[in-house]
């Protein structure tokens, strides 16, 4: 897209129409309709031990109850002050200390929790409680009541992934506090998993819900699936073995606005270069390696978190068998017909 020539006559004209809230398209066209994505999102890695240290300090400054949610937001360096990890998504590290409760509330933003540390704290979602363990992916559907309780004897830390910037962009945010810190339990623990998580559905179930009725995807099951698949050797040169979390009533992504994935990349594997338009947040769950994002190398250890912006080339080189969790806004892009991907072997365009 070409820039237009400046002149004093044109400048005077722009100045004159500006007073009537009018702007000439031709002076902003190249910034609006770009030839490739370029939001200003920057590749970045948060080293877990130092983020954890700051979070534990916050644990002494403020209670989970007073904060409502005691979270350190992972702010993309390209979006400081905007509470975004990518243009459309939010990421944060949440701490719930033993004996604490993050009081019940609900909002139109959808959340996923990826458990980083601790064992045995609960989150309660729409009347059902679920125990959280490291590597579990727990979802909170839009407008579902949720509170987090830690009745264990260790601090519990998880990564929050929410569609806050997307909901903000669409101006559709609603939120409210419950009148009690703890919502009432209306279903027994494990009920949703029994009904929807065993490759079966209750007989007569015909309704495809927009969000998955399963709300905890335990890591031991995810890991076991990938470990079993390993024997079959169906490796993707760009992804290793990669699975997406799904809604069993529809086969679609587990949440309407965010996709979540877990992938296994084995020792000494170097993946082929790949890019896609959905900016992605990755968590190293196990293993260690180096991810090269648009030519810049990021070394990671377990629990480090990093961002791959839209359309940046990415390849992974792994030193020890690695499990990588990730989330992005891919469902939104695909529903709107906007999602693109490119493998290194393909031609640009
Ligand atoms: O746990 O409900 O990181 O409402 C940001 C907003 C977590 C939560 C966040 C939230 C939550």
Question: Layout of SSEs?
Answer:
Layout: H1 8-18, H2 29-32, E1 44-46, H3 48-61, H4 64-67, E2 71-73, E3 90-96, E4 101-107, E5 111-117, E6 119-125, E7 128-133, E8 137-140, E9 146-149, E10 156-162, H5 164-170, E11 175-177, H6 191-196, E12 216-217, H7 219-230, E13 241-244, E14 259-265, E15 274-276, E16 280-293, E17 296-300, E18 305-308, E19 314-328, H8 330-335, E20 341-343
Antiparallel strand pairs: 1-18, 2-3, 3-10, 4-9, 4-11, 5-8, 5-10, 6-7, 6-9, 8-12, 13-14, 14-19, 15-20, 16-17, 16-18, 16-19
Give a quick rundown of the structure:
This protein has eight helices and 20 strands.
How many angstroms separate the termini? Answer: 16 Å
Bulk shape = globular
Share of residues in helices: 10-25%
Name of the CATH first level: Mainly Beta
Distinct helical segment count: 8
CATH topology: Jelly Rolls
Distinct small molecules:
2,5-dihydroxybenzoic acid
Count of strand segments: 20
Q: Tell me the series of helices and strands, N- to C-terminal.
A: HHEHHEEEEEEEEEHEHEHEEEEEEEHE
Largest sheet: 7 strands, antiparallel
The pLDDT mean sits at 96
Please report which band the strand proportion falls in: under 5%, 5-15%, 15-25%, 25-35%, 35-45% or over 45%.
25-35%
Q: CATH homologous superfamily - what is it?
A: Jelly Rolls
């Amino acid at each position: 897209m070409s820039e237009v020539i400046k002149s004093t006559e044109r400048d005077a004209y722009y100045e004159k129409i500006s007073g009537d809230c009018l702007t000439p398209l031709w002076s902003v066209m190249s910034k609006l309709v770009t030839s490739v994505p370029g939001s200003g999102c920057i590749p970045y890695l948060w080293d877990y031990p130092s983020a954890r240290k700051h979070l534990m300090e916050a644990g002494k400054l403020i209670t989970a109850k007073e904060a409502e949610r005691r979270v350190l937001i992972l702010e993309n360096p390209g979006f400081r002050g905007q509470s975004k990890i990518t243009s459309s998504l939010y990421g944060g590290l949440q701490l719930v200390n033993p004996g604490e409760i993050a009081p019940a509330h609900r909002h139109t933003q959808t959340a996923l929790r990826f458990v980083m540390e601790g064992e045995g704290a609960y989150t309660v979602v729409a009347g059902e409680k679920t125990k959280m363990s490291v590597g579990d992916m727990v979802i909170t559907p839009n407008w579902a009541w949720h509170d987090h309780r830690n009745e264990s004897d260790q601090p519990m830390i998880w990564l929050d992934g929410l569609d806050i910037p997307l909901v903000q962009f669409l101006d559709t945010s609603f939120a409210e506090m419950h009148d009690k810190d703890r919502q009432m339990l209306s279903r027994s623990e494990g009920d949703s998993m029994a009904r929807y998580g065993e490759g079966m559905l209750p007989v007569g179930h015909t309704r495809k819900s927009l969000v998955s009725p399963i709300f905890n995807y335990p890591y031991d099951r995810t890991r076991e699936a990938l470990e079993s698949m390993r024997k079959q050797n169906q490796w993707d040169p760009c992804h290793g073995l990669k699975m997406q979390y799904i809604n069993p009533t529809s086969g679609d992504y587990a949440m309407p606005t965010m996709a979540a994935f877990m992938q296994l990349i084995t020792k000494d594997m170097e993946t082929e270069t790949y890019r896609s338009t959905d900016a992605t947040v990755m968590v190293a769950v196990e293993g260690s390696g180096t991810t090269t994002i648009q030519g810049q190398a990021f070394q990671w250890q377990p629990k480090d978190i990093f961002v791959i912006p839209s359309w940046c080339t990415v390849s992974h080189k792994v030193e020890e068998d690695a499990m990588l969790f990730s989330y992005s806004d891919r469902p939104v892009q695909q529903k709107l017909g906007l999602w693109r991907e490119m493998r290194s072997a393909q031609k640009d365009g």
